[in-house]
Amino acid sequence: MLTSLQPPFFSAIKDSRRVLIAGMGGGFDVFCGLPLYFALRAEGMEVTLGNLSFSSFSPLAPHPLAPALIEVTPEFRVSESEYFPEYYLSCWLQAQGETPHVFALRKTGVQPLLAAYRALVKHLSIDTIILIDGGTDALMRGDEADLGTPHEDAVSLCAVYQLAEERPELKTYMVSLGFGIDHFHGVSHWNVLEATAELARAGAYLGSFSLTPEQRPVQLYRAACEAVFQQMPRHVSIVNSSILSAIEGQYGDYHATDRTRGSELWINPLMAQYWCYELVPVARRLQYRQALMDTLTLSDVDKVIRRHRDSVNLRPRHTLPI
After folding, report:
1. pTM score, two decimals?
2. Contact by Cβ (8 Å): 266, 183
3. Could you name the domain of life of the organism this protein comes from (predicted)?
4. What whole-number distance in Å separates Cα of residue 199 and Cα of residue 286?
């Protein structure tokens, strides 16, 4: 084992015992954390899954752990038309013989989400939080030509940043999977690599590593995605479908789902790489972080981002010179 060439991320988390892997942008982001989930569990760690949820889940859990936090269980009664990937993931995990630990966090502003993260960390004695971004737009600082879909990512980033400030013993990381996917939302990956280089200079870039088809955690990730896609055929995840296509070696304008027909995709091997960062330095790059901290709703968040974009000189768009 060439341990001296392992990405620093592995060394950073090797002593973790109770890990929360949380999708930061909502939707199917938590699925992007499944390869890590299965790998860390195989190492003997206690791992819990969380996700910023797009679901209306308040009637399903009359006794939430916090106003913006519930545990999702297979016992929920969910209609076939309801968008609830966290529920179907919980059901799939149980079908594999696991005791599912899946939590949903409501789409809110920073303060309610911070309260939810506080409650979850306390409830489970979490020592490590890994936020997962399906894509790379969580690295945008605020003055790029296009930010992609920044609202949910920024709220999650700020909430966990504040929690890390309150609890210095808590280890916090941000990991992205799906390099190139956010081109669909206008992001220039020149800016993604610029951010990574800046974080590398600060000692906060913890390396990258690839997911390949023969890895058992990757096989379980694929199985989970395919099972949930069958349960939610109208909402097949474009992000995870693209990542799985990249893992299997597809390239270019390849469409695994009809949801992307009519657009041009760039499926590529870099989509199958985890890019790992210390969370606090990533959050400190966010130019409107301070203004977000007191937000209560996503409408508040939208106003903050719009005001910031109106107040700064947006930098010209760059494309990768390759």
Report:
1. 0.96
2. yes
3. Bacteria
4. 12
